[in-house]
Fold each of these.
Amino acid sequence: MSLKPSPIEGIPAETERVARAAFPRGTTITRLRDEFTELYRDEDFASLYPRRGQPGLAPWRLALVTVFQFLEHLSDRQAADAVRSRIDWKYALGLELTDPGFHFSVLTEFRDRLLKAEAEHLLLDRMLAHFKARGLLKARGRQRTDSTHVLAAVRDLRLLELITETLRATLNELAVAAPEWLGEVAQPEWFERYARRAEDWRLPGGSRPKREAYAQQVGADGVRLLGALDEPSAPPAAGEVPTLPLLRQVLWTYFDRGADGTLRWRDGAELPPVGERIQTPYDPEMHYSTKRGMEWSGYKV
């Protein structure tokens, strides 16, 4: 895909009318748009995109969504849902109320594009420049200028959702295929931890240690389940559930096991390209793809 910069247009009239009615005093998201209409511009990211090919999604919008999801501790899927459903987000992004948004994997690709080009500093550099111009920063104040923690936080939330939901899907299939066996090997806390879809509740989005601790717990649960399935006493039906190979692939894509058996959550640089990763356990053939300037989340023939 290519980048054909275009000016940021005004907020659609109906979107503005509904947002003003719904939030008379505004929200953090709407106030950010009111105060900084051009917090980011397409031109800020021009060096990340080729000049030829079909145009992709406006990077200024993807940058804003990345900041919003960091502020609200949202995974990529939750952020994409917010673009589709939340009035204040549509207001800030200048979208019609009927705009369908985009697939959540587009956010993963945008972050990878920033990191590969070592351009993650753009997110905060542009923001701090605007804040300084408005006098919102003290002349000698210390301000964090490293955007890596923003990108890492939203990446972590995306992966937490994926590994949690993959394990949950496997447990649900085992509950049908081998309910008695699962009742014997499942830990009591699993019923609470994996009772609901991961995107139905907020994942730990505070400090990185909290996210890593949660990831380690889910990874340990997954490894424990795989160990039980490898035992001779495991019923054949349990080893044939469709999601089991996906669970193995997801766990060993995002975790590394040391010689002492401890798990380590892999850094972003150790992961395969986004187009080669599983996006969801419910449709494993779907991947983020680009070809001759086109981008899509779907299938390759």
Amino acid sequence: MKVRDIVSSIEEMAPLTYQESYDNSGLLVGSYDSDVAGVLICLDVIESVVEEAIKKGVNLIIAHHPIVFKGLKRFNGSNYVERTVILAIQNNISIYAAHTNLDSVKGGVSDRICDLIGLQNRRILSPVSEDLYKLVTFVPNKFAQEVRDALFEAGAGSIGNYDSCSYAVEGTGSFRGGENTDPFVGEKGKLHLEPEVRIETIFPKHLKGAICSALLKNHPYEEVAFDIYRLENDNKQVGLGMIGELAVPEEPLFFLRRIKEIFGSACVKHTQISKRKIKTVAVCGGSGSSLLRKAISRKADVFVSGDFKYHEFFDAEGRIIIADIGHYESEQFTRDIFYEIVTKKFPNFAVYISEINSNPINYL
């Protein structure tokens, strides 16, 4: 088993293209071609986690938070980041992180929070834009379904809960092959008119290579005519945070006490109780204060997240209840997501969840 085999299973769900511009997800230490003896999963890579990996005899650590977030100018062990990286390199341990890319997909961090709270009818709170592309190609009539199926198999044509979405219209294509051509239909040197189907379908940008490869491999023509357009539509399947509804509305204090217990928070910092009932809930794992206005505009009764600063609590203005359960507390179950992804793909492989509590915050 190679490092690339393990991390590919994660990136199938959470492509690196979905990470935020400031992020540093991916393979941070080691080589994609290294053999893997076992995997240790954690939220944060710190020295004690690397030491745990050494004791367990594993040589790949999968973390949610990147240990290297900003550029390192020296490696002299002057801080925990440098010491952790040095220790990993000395023991041939690879380190991989999936951070905001895992935050941004269904089945990811915020979706897991929704599972735990019990939210229905879930939607992405802040969908990404300029992630979708449209492919337009022209295929001889009797090969249209074959090409369509190949594009769908490669991941094109998904819109919300629907797949195999496309549009087709019949027309006539014209072409004339030169002396060095071997046309699939018609004769070189002669103008040919062919009944064709114009096929349109959409796909997310990270699948562009796979989509083009599927088209070229399955299209019968020697030279394939196709166009790719970038769309301004929001991709409602990808983005930060989620919003959903409780099956039965709850009293605010009951709801706050319930999430405190679910996430094991030492305390829940919250704004004034400005709602009589909690029905619509917005969530975001980690630091979600930048999405507060989105939560308000989507008519959420409460926003569950972490890392709100003092003055940001004023921004609720009685229109929403902010429930700060803590950064670590909101993301701790990310380890379970990694474990489920890897063990589903590689059921007989040695995968461990770290026993280290890496939460740097303590409460008196």
